């Protein structure tokens, strides 16, 4: 049963400007394993985190580092949660996440489906 759906689109050039203008933003948004990725990949991961937040109903107090995108051996992306995000997901009975990410030109997008 679908509990929530979230989608987000990030303009890569605007995201790049924000991380260049705001010291510490990368450290606040991403776990160490994500931080060395290209700006384009970071923008897509940020879109995925935003989509997770939307699928959860945009809970107050969500820590961005408690949600990350990991790739399996085949290179497919998956959502990995812990902490504040896992707590909200548990309250809602969410056991399964589906993630699709894409890039086109200056845009990065992600769609998330949360199921129980």
TrEMBL record:
It catalyses: apo-[ACP] + CoA = holo-[ACP] + adenosine 3',5'-bisphosphate + H(+). It is an enzyme of class 2 (transferase). InterPro entries: 4-PPantetheinyl_Trfase_dom, 4-PPantetheinyl_Trfase_dom_sf, ACPS, Ppantetheine-prot_Trfase_dom. GO terms for biological process: fatty acid biosynthetic process. GO terms for molecular function: holo-[acyl-carrier-protein] synthase activity; magnesium ion binding. Its cofactor is Mg(2+). Residues 4-92 form the 4'-phosphopantetheinyl transferase domain. It is found in: Cytoplasm. GO terms for cellular component: cytoplasm. SUPFAM superfamilies: 4'-phosphopantetheinyl transferase. Mg(2+) binds at residues 8, 50. Its EC number is 2.7.8.7. The keyword Transcription regulation does not apply. Keywords: Cytoplasm, Fatty acid biosynthesis, Fatty acid metabolism, Lipid biosynthesis, Lipid metabolism, Magnesium, Metal-binding, Transferase. Belongs to the P-Pant transferase superfamily. AcpS family. Transfers the 4'-phosphopantetheine moiety from coenzyme A to a Ser of acyl-carrier-protein. This is Holo-[acyl-carrier-protein] synthase. It comes from Neomicrococcus aestuarii.
